[in-house]
Amino acid sequence: KLSPCNSLLGVLLSAVGWLCSLCTTMMPFWLTLSTDLLPTESLEVGLWKTCAIQDLGLQECRPYNSLLGLPPDIKLARILMCAALGFGLMGSVLAVLGLNLINSCCRKMDDRRFKKVLKTAGGTLSLAAGILVLVPVSYIAHLTVVRFFDESVPDVVPRWEFGDSLFCGWTAGVLHLVAGTLLLISSLYLQEQNWNLPVHIPLVPVSQRHRSVRISAEYI
Q1: Domain coordinates of the chain in residue numbers?
Q2: pTM across the whole model
Q3: Mind telling me which residue stretches traverse the membrane in this protein (predicted)?
Q4: What pairing do the DSSP bridges indicate for beta strands 31-34 and 59-63?
């Protein structure tokens, strides 16, 4: 069947998406700036620090001095990316617990229902993590494009461009969305299996049934 493959693939994509989200949050490469005055050096901006990188491989980074002095887009990106990491981690854990490969001490019917709930919760959290990642990344990319093509700024003024973290963030968001979709499809397939399970009807032995009929006849 396709359900176990969907579940396992969804868990793997969710884990890879979470790692990409972590790299996006920690790497100081959200925006990059290079000028003709310093062709051997580029400036990089991240959520937590700014870095000056030279062509020889030398790198000097400085963290932001004040939280209140940060631009609003950096503040928003910090909050949403941290929330995405939390949602993605919880979604991955719940999805792993909802795998059919993980045994539990519940009855078969209860175990299927419990795993369906875990997969549904994991898929929903993964979808939420993907949206939370895509919103700040796309918003900062939008602001960068608007500022890059701003005609009121002279051409001699250097412009910020996309950094590697933005592309990593888009990848993380797509992976989370695909993982959440696969997990929800797997939970729906598991629900259909629950409806098709045979219902166990206890059978009464023939001798015991005849005995009960005989006793009831004597009372009559």
Answers
A1: 2-29+70-195
A2: 0.80
A3: 7-31, 76-102, 123-149, 169-190
A4: unpaired
